[in-house]
Specification:
Layout (H helix, E strand, L loop, with lengths): L1 E2 L3 E5 L10 E3 L5 E3 L3 E3 L4 E6 L2 E6 L3 E2 L7 E6 L4 E6 L12 E2 L1
Antiparallel strand pairs: 1-2, 2-7, 3-4, 5-6, 6-7, 8-11, 9-10
């Protein structure tokens, strides 16, 4: 497996006959060649003849008042919301996001 901060690559394994049919992820799940999907770790992945390529799709808030606010992660939507600590129904402004 090769990786950088936000993406990684899993080389295809198997016999030459299988190289153009499917890819297998680290959990053993197989995917059709040239397919794309979002996994449960908030990554977009694709299967191509060389293997599986996955990248994080979560934008992380970094430019907000950490004294006044906190970030909340929604696993279903793979998104963060930044809310006031004293009043979690009120959102906080965010000046910067990183991937």
């Amino acid at each position: 497996m090769l990786c950088n901060a936000q993406c990684y690559f899993i080389p295809i394994e198997g016999s030459p006959d299988n190289l153009l049919k499917e890819c297998k992820d680290l959990g053993g799940v197989t995917y059709a060649m040239n397919s794309k999907w979002k996994n449960d770790r908030c990554e977009e992945c694709s299967c191509n003849p060389t293997g599986i390529h996955c990248c994080n799709i979560v934008a992380i808030p970094v430019g907000f008042s950490k004294m006044k606010c906190k970030k909340l992660f929604n696993e279903k939507t793979c998104t963060y919301t930044v809310v006031e600590k004293k009043n979690p129904k009120k959102t906080c402004p965010v000046q910067q996001w990183v991937m």
